[in-house]
Prior knowledge:
The chain is built from 13 helices and 20 strands. The strands form five sheets. The chain has a seven-stranded mixed β-sheet with strand order 6-14-13-12-9-7-8, with helices on both faces. Strands 15, 16, 17, 19 and 20 form a five-stranded antiparallel β-sheet that branches. The chain has a four-stranded mixed β-sheet with strand order 3-4-5-18.
Amino acid sequence: xxxxxxxxxxxxxxxxxxxxxxxxxxxxxxxxxxxxxxxxxxxxxxxxxxxxxxxxxxxxxxxxxxxxxxxxxxxxxxxxxxxxxxxxxxxxxxxxxxxxxxxxxxxxxxxxxxxxxxxxxxxxxxxxxxxxxxxxxxxxxxxxxxxxxxxxxxxxxxxxxxxxxxxxxxxxxxxxxxxxxxxxxxxxxxxxxxxxxxxxxxxxxxxxxxxxxxxxxxxxxxxxxxxxxxxxxxxxxxxxxxxxxxxxxxxxxxxxxxxxxxxxxxxxxxxxxxxxxxxxxxxxxxxxxxxxxxxxxxxxxxxxxxxxxxxxxxxxxxxxxxxxxxxxxxxxxxxxxxxxxxxxxxxxxxxxxxxxxxxxxxxxxxxxxxxxxxxxxxxxxxxxxxxxxxxxxxxxxxxxxxxxxxxxxxxxxxxxxxxxxxxxxxxxxxxxxxxxxxxxxxxxxxxxxxxxxxxxxxxxxxxxxxxxxxxxxxxxxxx
Length: 479
């Protein structure tokens, strides 16, 4: 594996870059900061907000409490864990008031921006009036949001069930598919992540996220991964495997096929072109339903469309969503047709917190902000620019094996050998840690943990994009 030398000192401040006349140059707004080799260190773009002084417990104290009172399964990023105490739009602040560019968005969750005033005001106004009731009583918040959400979906997808998370939404979708079809076999993709409950863990197809418990009735098809897949970008070739699974692994009929349009946890894998239309056709012939998991790709994040599946020219039977739906509020949803929704009338289905007035008020506020501020369009413009700049790093550094994704759902995969595509696990951790010291927070994912997940709030600017890429460029140049 390629050797690398960690940076010898921590970087306390940052600088940013702008493009002028087609060339990138560092900003002259403030006095340049240079490192020991007289290389300009990227600096954060200016921002109008400074947080009030923090008087709470230190990072060390919080970490100690976590170790004593919280699950030992919890883990954290970075050699020196970050204590986040404040946030505004695309920025986060630590206990010392230092500002960071949030290019992870709480795992593709913060879409409007941290503490967006319109969303905060809507939540505060509702919580002062009514925090919780139950769907056994009437309240306009759940009905208003359901109507607005249904109006964002194509076809006859207009019946909404509210949940508290993406896992719960996917569990409900799988159960409804089984009830509607009378079949029990589900097909999902290898490398997929759909949740960590009983059914969704079965649909998830990475051993990293699967416990040794009974997980039956799910078949995992070849992943149509253009970078690592055996058929490259030939989507229809991968689709044949689904037909084989149906013929040789089931009775010939299935309940459903479930997939993300872009695999998030799996490392920002965009499905090969032509794959979804071919598979949807195969599933329909087998009597199954098609479930689109939009937990991460939905709500305009991909830029070109409001939903990830729309880029593939398909219309699913059930759509699940969470994360960006509430900008950080615990909220999920399942949207389907009236015919499929009818199956839940066979018994009593109830969700205590699903459709809570505070959560659905927040969800409606999020939809309004996305429209008012044209965040989907911004994701397309800024995301395209960011991807172009990241792709330039691939031409500059052999360590960068692939740059992929759409809009503001982008992935950068690091490899130590481009031909063998050997995962650069240690290098990924090093770059991630050093970028944090410069002032950029990115996520990581993929089965091997060697893919940077770039899923910032959709209010991200071109100046933010420049700062992110400059910070990555600077760090890679020091390897």
